[in-house]
UniProtKB/TrEMBL annotation:
Keywords: Oxidoreductase. The active site is at residue 240. Pfam families: Aldedh (PF00171). This is Aldehyde dehydrogenase family protein. Residues 20-458 form the Aldehyde dehydrogenase domain. Belongs to the aldehyde dehydrogenase family. PANTHER family: ALDEHYDE DEHYDROGENASE-RELATED.
Length: 466
């Protein structure tokens, strides 16, 4: 099978000769095949997880936390191999906020889940509130941060005494299977199971009555379908859905000082992040300066295959996503928008490379503004009136994240309080921390992850009254 701490060893441990074809988004070449599991495979996995759950919960918080630390050690031992697999499968570069960052984040979130205290709470004079395991948790992950978001789903769930059956995206199953292999080697059998498969398998996860909790990260449309399809079982739900995050630059901001952070807020993972900055509103007095400062950052940020050490931006993961971004930019062009930089991809190239693109002169109701582009194309819109721009920021159905940029932090806090979003960052965008709760409002879903609130979300509250 090969060593688990090499790229070849990880790939050999999880790939099969035929099944779900996985291609390298930088070249279009076949990377390998993942097992295409069936509904019957899922039923067996749920049965095994259900049988393993009482014993796992009975180990107690201290022992489960110890094993999560051992799992984090194992991830760190295999981090270089896992990072290479993520780069080759998903496309993000090794460096910058890329696949090495993602692999390191997995270990960090495992340790945070292990170390976050969650003590029983006294309620009134004679009652205690405590949290117990739900049972078996079903999770469906996305393709943009496949290993890290998988860890977000299972780390807290395991800490609280649940067992987990996780289905990764059919576009990026190998890295999640590899993570499951690495972590699973230090856990009891049946505690964590990763099953790769297509949409039929995902639908079966949602409908399976063996799950007491479902976790999903993906589009708002699919999230709504999950709510409807799971109604017969009434599982608890955590839904981290689509985002179209606004950023508002106030007139006292320093364009040169904020340009780098604005850029990475928008273009991290080549724009393929739910909580990335996707529409930027700049006060008219600063608009041109901010645009030029951002152009300078784009010009000096190299794009290329993820496994090349010099790359800081990579390809889009799927050809379908390439087409979505390309189509939105072309429609903006046709409507008279100005392409400041980018916007001219090589559509005949084998990889899914779309250049980092800045767009101005775009209408507030253009598709590039009101639809989630999920790629490296940022519309920049001037505004004059603060009340009006806050209205524009709140006008869409999404409410995952937002940001306010200002030299006056107290003023920025006042503006932040008027924005409808689960998280509002000040002078940064999209940064998450394993101890800080994260979740959306409106069409961006509900439920929190990370920290104590994240642990409570994968548990059942119980009141003991004496």
């Amino acid at each position: 099978m090969g060593d688990i701490d090499t790229f070849e060893g990880l790939l050999a441990a999880v790939a099969v000769e035929d099944g779900l074809r996985v291609t390298d988004p930088a070249s279009g070449e076949v990377l390998g095949y993942a097992p295409d599991r069936t509904v019957e495979d899922l039923r067996r996995a749920v049965a095994v997880a259900k049988a393993a759950q009482p014993g796992w919960e009975a180990l107690g918080h201290e022992e489960r936390s110890r094993l999560l630390h051992v799992a984090a050690d194992a991830v760190e031992h295999s981090a270089a191999a896992l990072a290479e697999l993520i780069s080759r499968e998903q496309g993000k570069p090794l460096n910058g906020p890329g696949s090495r960052f993602e692999a390191g984040g997995v270990a960090a979130w495992l340790r945070a889940a292990a170390d976050t205290p969650l003590e029983p709470e006294r309620v009134g004079e004679s009652a205690v509130l405590r949290y117990r395991a739900v049972g078996v948790v079903g999770a469906i992950g996305p393709w943009n941060w496949p290993a890290l978001i998988a860890c977000w789903q299972f780390a807290g769930a395991l800490r609280m005494g649940n067992t987990v059956v996780l289905k990764p995206s059919e576009y990026t199953p190998l890295s999640v299977l590899a993570l499951g292999e690495v972590v699973g080697r230090v856990l009891p059998e049946g505690v964590l199971t990763v099953l790769s498969g297509g949409r039929e398998l995902g639908a079966a996860v949602v409908a399976d009555r063996g799950f007491g909790k479902l976790m999903f990260t993906g589009s708002t449309r699919t999230g709504r379908a999950i709510v409807a399809a799971s109604a017969g079982n009434l599982p608890r739900l955590t839904l981290e859905l689509g985002g179209n995050d606004p950023g508002i630059v106030l007139p006292d901001a320093d364009p040169a000082a904020i340009a780098e952070d604005l850029f990475w807020g928008a273009f991290i993972n080549t724009g393929q992040t739910c909580a990335a900055l996707k529409r930027l509103y700049v006060h008219e007095s600063l608009h041109d300066e901010v645009v030029e400062a951002l152009r300078a950052v784009v010009e000096r940020t190299p794009m290329g295959p993820g496994v090349e050490e010099g790359s800081l931006l990579g390809p889009l993961t799927t050809r379908e996503q390439f087409g979505i971004v390309d189509g939105l930019v072309e429609k903006a062009k046709a409507a008279g928008a100005r392409i400041v930089i980018g916007g001219e991809p090589d559509r005949d190239a084998p990889g899914n490379f779309y250049p980092a693109t800045l767009v101005t002169g775009v209408a507030g109701d253009a598709g590039l503004v009101v639809e989630e582009q999920f790629g490296p194309a940022l519309p920049i819109l001037p505004y004059r009136d603060l009340d009006d721009v806050i209205g524009q920021a709140n006008a869409l159905e999404t409410g995952l994240g937002a940001s306010v940029w200002s030299a006056d932090v107290e003023r920025a806090k006042e503006v932040s309080g008027r924005i409808e979003a689960g998280t509002v960052w000040i002078n940064k965008h999209g940064t998450v921390h394993p101890m800080v709760p994260f979740g959306g409002v409106k069409g961006s879903g509900y439920g929190l992850e990370f920290g104590q609130e994240g642990l409570k979300a994968v548990a059942v509250p119980q009141i003991i009254t004496t």
